[in-house]
Design brief:
Blueprint: H1 5-14, E1 34-41, E2 44-46, E3 51-58, E4 62-65, E5 70-72, E6 75-80, E7 86-93, E8 98-108, E9 121-128, E10 131-133, E11 138-145, E12 149-152, E13 157-159, E14 162-167, E15 173-180, E16 185-195, E17 206-213, E18 216-217, E19 222-231, E20 235-239, E21 243-245, E22 248-255, E23 259-267, E24 270-280, E25 287-290, E26 299-302, E27 318-326, E28 332-340, E29 348-352, E30 356-357, E31 363-370, E32 380-388, E33 394-402, E34 409-414, E35 422-431, E36 440-448
Parallel strand pairs: 2-8, 10-16, 18-24
Antiparallel strand pairs: 1-3, 3-6, 4-5, 4-7, 7-8, 9-11, 11-14, 12-13, 12-15, 15-16, 17-19, 19-22, 20-21, 20-23, 23-24, 25-36, 26-29, 27-28, 28-36, 29-35, 30-35, 31-34, 31-36, 32-33, 32-35
């Protein structure tokens, strides 16, 4: 296990496009990235203090932040301590496009930058590799001195004086870096040649299919899988509530009322539409508590009681959200909770949720499995735990040992013997002899009645 640790750590770092902790492509090549949020909190600090960068991205195969941070997960939080006021640029990329967002951390009480005595100097600005195949990526790297601002065009935006960022150009392109100060500005260019461009369409997009399975949900709420396949589209979206998607895909949606979904496919020749109806019947179960939606309110710790926080990939173990993620059953789920145990033999992770009183008729239900690609795992044990208020003892209420591949595994726990009792539920994952590729995923985890 010790010999594998550096490789496994590298896998965690490299695999930021899907954020599951391993080398996975969770969306098709036509997916359009979207940056839901990118913020700094607090936005103003004193010199020597820190601020937390937080972000939420969907539809990207790769996400990076400049100023030396590098590749990150789709969703996360990162503490930074800039020595001076700094603009951070987040870049979200898919196989066909790249978008950016910026946020600024203002530093007060910092020493003012020295007054420049000449124009900025661009020491280097390169693209490596400079020739890629369509759908591939290249890394822009640069080093600038004597500049108060540095920008790169074509969607990259403001950057630090030195750094690197991954870009995924869809065609041959020239990137221009501009370094400026009060004296003047200097520029440098980097050419990226893109070969193997796909042939363009000859007419409007073709919607090959758009289906729901099942098309009728018998209870008062439930889920269905939307499946679609489109040819010759430059953008594809599904409304309401889903937005941009890949040209082909599967997505699980949760519904509490009948809904008409409309798929829209666009290219230079026109637009194609197809509407699909999903019917939700009366009756059924109601959700009391959703452990996935409330995961950020839990206290996440590993087996040696290290506080892990939420949304930070690390070898001590981590809990993160994965958006539109493909699991080992072959289906894509809109929001998944990945809980990776501590990266040691027989490692574990547990999220302890806020105190609650168990209501009458309550039961726990979950669907669990692995992020697609976790073929190296030897399986994990998923558990629901309980700790009574005032008691130091944590007990297991039920669980399942799960191995990679096949349909997701259901966990159902009858909570009738705990009705009226007050305490804290927990979601726990325990590794086997090895924790390699233990990308344990909760597709559902809720208390219903």
């Amino acid at each position: 296990m010790k010999k594998l640790l550096p490789v496994l750590i590298l896998a965690v770092v490299v695999l930021v496009g899907c954020g599951p902790g391993g080398p996975i492509t969770c969306i098709g090549p036509a997916q359009q990235p979207s940056i839901t949020s990118f913020n700094a909190e607090p936005a103003s600090i004193s010199a020597g203090q820190s601020s937390n960068l937080s972000w939420n991205v969907s539809g990207a195969t790769m996400v990076s932040i400049d100023q030396g941070i590098g590749n990150v997960a789709l969703t996360g939080i990162r503490a930074v301590s800039p020595a001076a006021t700094t603009v951070y640029t987040l870049t979200a990329s898919s196989a066909t496009s790249s978008i950016t967002a910026t946020t600024q951390v203002i530093v007060t009480g910092a020493a003012p930058p020295p007054t420049p005595t000449g124009q900025p100097v661009v020491n280097s600005f390169i693209a490596s590799p400079s020739t890629i195949s369509y759908g591939g990526s290249t890394t822009l790297s640069w080093s600038v001195t004597n500049a108060t601002s540095v920008t790169i065009d074509n969607g990259v935006g403001a950057v630090g004086s030195s750094g690197s960022t991954v870009v995924l150009p869809a065609a041959t392109i020239t990137y221009t870096l501009t370094a400026s100060n009060s004296v003047g500005s200097s520029t440098a260019t980097a050419l990226v040649l893109v070969s193997g461009l796909p042939p363009g369409p000859s007419g409007p997009p073709v919607i090959n299919y758009f289906t729901a399975s099942p098309p009728v949900i018998p209870g008062g709420s439930g889920s269905t899988f939307l499946r679609w396949n489109v040819s010759d589209a430059t953008s594809v979206s599904i409304d309401p509530g889903i937005g941009s998607v890949a040209s082909s895909g599967t997505m699980l949606v949760m519904l509490s009322s009948s809904t008409n979904y409309t798929l829209t496919a666009i290219n230079a020749y026109g637009t194609s539409y197809l509407t699909l109806s999903v019917t939700v019947g009366g009756g059924g179960s109601s959700i009391i508590y959703d452990f996935i939606e409330q995961a950020m309110s839990a206290s996440w710790k590993n087996g040696v009681n290290t506080d892990l926080g939420f949304g930070i990939q690390q070898v001590d173990g981590y809990a993160i959200y994965l958006i539109n993620q493909k699991l080992d059953d072959g289906n894509i789920y809109p929001k998944v909770l990945e809980t990776h145990p501590q990266w040691v033999n027989n490692g574990s992770i547990r999220g302890t949720y806020p105190t609650m009183t168990v209501p009458a008729g309550a039961k726990f239900t979950a669907k669990v499995g692995f992020v697609d690609g976790a073929t190296g795992t030897d399986g994990v044990l998923f558990r629901l735990t309980w700790r009574e208020s005032g008691s130091p003892v944590t007990v297991s209420l039920g669980g399942q040992h799960v191995t990679y591949g096949g349909p997701l595994v259901n966990i159902d726990v009858d909570l009738s013997s705990y009705v009226g009792r007050t305490g804290q539920f927990g979601l726990m994952v325990e590794a086997g002899p090895s924790s390699g590729q233990d990308w344990a995923a909760w597709a559902e985890a809720k208390i219903i009645y």
